[in-house]
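Aim 2 progress. For glutamate formimidoyltransferase, the working sequence is reproduced below.
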Amino acid sequence: MQKIVECVPNFSEGKNLKVINAIFDVSQTGKVKSFELEYNVSHNRMLFTIVGSPEDVLNSVFESIKIATKLIDMNKHTGEHPRIGATDVVPFVPVSGVSMEECVELSNKLAKKVADELNLPVFMYEASAKKEEYRNLADVRVGEYEGLKKSMRKPDYGPLKTHPTAGAMVIGARKYLIAYNVDLDTTDVNVAKQIAKKIREKDGGLKAVKALGFEVDGMAQVSMNLVDYEITNFDEAYREIEKEAKNLGVGIKNSEIYGMIPLEALVRAVKTTFKGTIFRSDQILEKKLWE
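Predicted C-alpha cells for this construct:
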C-alpha cells in the first residue's frame, strides 16, 4: 500500500494576495497535490492541504515555511485568530499506509529541520507533544505572539527566543480535524462568545469540540475545531449552536466547512440527520470511480 499523509499548514496572512499566493505556489511540487487554499481577512490567516508521500509532503511544506518566514512580519500582524508565528501550526495526518507513530516521527524531522535551517523555535503538540502541557494547541498559544515575545517558554526545538519577525511555530501529528464556522445573524460578538463557551468541551460542552467567538466580516461567528468527528461531527455541532442561539433570540446566517474533511464525516452526518438511514461510503458513485 502506498504511504500517504496529509498536511494542513496554517499561516498568519489573510490579506496580502501576493504573499498568500507565494506561500501556496511554492508548495506545489510535482510529487504532491496541494489544494484547497483558504484565507480570511478578519482572521488574517490562510491554510491549505498538501497530500502525498511522507518525505515529499515534508519537503513541500518546508518550502512554504521558508517563504512565510521571509515574507511575514509578525510585529505588524493583527487578526482575530490566535497565533504565535508566521507559520502558526503544521499538523501531519495519516491517510493510508502510515501510522500515527510515523507521522509523529515525520513531525519531529520537520521540527528539527525548521529549527536548524531557519532558526525558529518549535513547540510539538497533539500526538507529538513532548510535554503534556503542550498537547493542546490552545495551551501552546497562551499569550499569543506578543506574550511569547515578552516571555519565551522553552521550545522543543530551536532557540530560547522568538524569531525577530517570524515568531515561533507549532508542529505535530493528529487525527483528522474538521474546521467548522457558524455565522450568527447578529453583529454582537458577545453572543458568539457565549455560545462558544457553552458548546466547547473544556467548559463542559460537546466532547472533542474547541470553539471561540469572533467578529468576522462585521458579523458574529462561532469558530470551531472538531478534533474527533467520530465523537462530535459538524452536524451535531450545528444543531447545538442552533439551540443555544435560539435561547438567546438569535438565528444562524450560514455555516462553512473550512478546508478538507473525510468522506466518512459526510456519511455520518447523513445517518445522524436522517435517523435510521442505512448508508455507507461505498454507496457513493464517485468513490467507486476513484477506486
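The domain at 178-283 is CATH 3.30.70.670 (Alpha-Beta Plaits). This observation will guide construct design in the next reporting period.
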